[in-house]
């Protein structure tokens, strides 16, 4: 997956095109990610117990990772991360536009 938890992303297509958000969780098997403030849906919730609040709640729904692109923290532009290997053998993600380590 090119998207990981706590990455800042931008949406490339769909009703939320252009929105930025932070990735809360990733499901690699389904190819989807849960992004804060993106793909928000309203659900009608019925109170189940005494004192349990009911009403209309908003929650994020998963979005396909193919519609998301990582935002570089240094140049603040959407980029597809490249991979490079450090001298000690550690594999790191690198911005293709500015060369900064992500």
Would you spell out the secondary-structure blueprint of this structure?
Blueprint: E1 8-11, E2 20-27, E3 32-35, E4 40-45, E5 55-60, E6 63-64, E7 68-71, E8 78-79, E9 82-85, E10 91-94
Antiparallel strand pairs: 1-2, 1-7, 2-3, 3-6, 4-5, 7-8, 9-10
Characterization of this structure:
- With 102 residues, the protein is mainly β.
- The protein is built from no helices and 10 strands.
- The strands form 3 sheets. It has a 6-stranded antiparallel β-sheet, with no helix packed on it.
- The radius of gyration is 17 Å and the shape is elongated.
- The mean pLDDT is 93.
The parts where pLDDT drops under 50 for at least 5 residues are: none
The shape, in one word, is: elongated
Q: How do the strands line up in the largest sheet? A: 6-3-2-1-7-8
Beta-strand content bin: 35-45%
In total, how many beta strands?
10
Distance between the termini: 15 Å
What is the residue-mean pLDDT, rounded to a whole number? 93
The level of helicity is under 10%
Output the number of helix runs. 0
Task: Round the Cα radius of gyration to an integer and report it.
Answer: 17 Å
What order do the SSEs take from the amino end to the carboxyl end, as H and E?
Answer: EEEEEEEEEE
Secondary-structure-based class equals: mainly beta
Could you give a short account of the major beta sheet?
6 strands, antiparallel
State the main characteristics.
six-stranded antiparallel β-sheet; 102 residues; two-stranded antiparallel ribbon; mainly beta
